[in-house]
Amino acid sequence: MKIQPFILERKLSVFDDREPDDWYQKIVLLPENSLFDFCLAELISFDTLSQQLGSDIFDYLKVYYKNLYIPLKGSDSLSLHFYIRLDKVTLQNFLVIVSFGEFQPARYKVHLEGIWLLAGDR
Questions:
Q1: Contacts 24+ apart (CB under 8 A), 15-19
Q2: How many CB atoms lie within 10 A of CB 67?
Q3: CB atoms within 10 A of CB 117
């Protein structure tokens, strides 16, 4: 499997609010493309990315995000998470990486860290 950049806008804030009552509420990531909409309940810890997509992709992303340390952190020192979307028209898979967590007591944030195009078999 190979990976290539699709959108790499750092620190694009997509959520900044109190802890949600409904973790399945839709969050719009990019208003111009509903493919990337998500809910907080579907976020997967970045630490498990190597099990999902292989260590080559995980290692590549660790090098790309040079400011990452163990534990891996994103914008505002929030934990990194990911989810994968299939574009049913083009049949392309996209890896979406966000930082998410409690920024202050009862204040949660989500930032877009990057969207990557996945090519090849998983």
A1: 15/40, 15/100, 15/108, 15/109, 15/110, 16/103, 16/107, 16/108, 16/109, 16/110, 17/107, 17/108, 18/106, 18/107, 18/108, 19/102, 19/106, 19/108
A2: 10
A3: 16
Residue 101 CA neighbour count, 13 Å, CB half: 15
Q: What would you measure as the largest C-alpha separation in the chain, in angstroms? A: 42
Beta bridge partners of 99: 80, 111
Per-residue pLDDT tens digits for 72-120:
788 888 999 999 999 999 999 999 999 999 999 989 999 999 999 998 7
Structure tokens given for 115: 């969207």
Question: Could you tell me if 65 and 99 are in contact, meaning their C-beta atoms sit under 8 angstroms apart?
Answer: no
Q: Reduce the DSSP state of residue 87 to 3 states and report it.
A: strand
Residues 6+ apart with CB under 8 A from 121: 1
The string of pLDDT tens digits covering residues 25-42 is 999 998 889 999 999 999
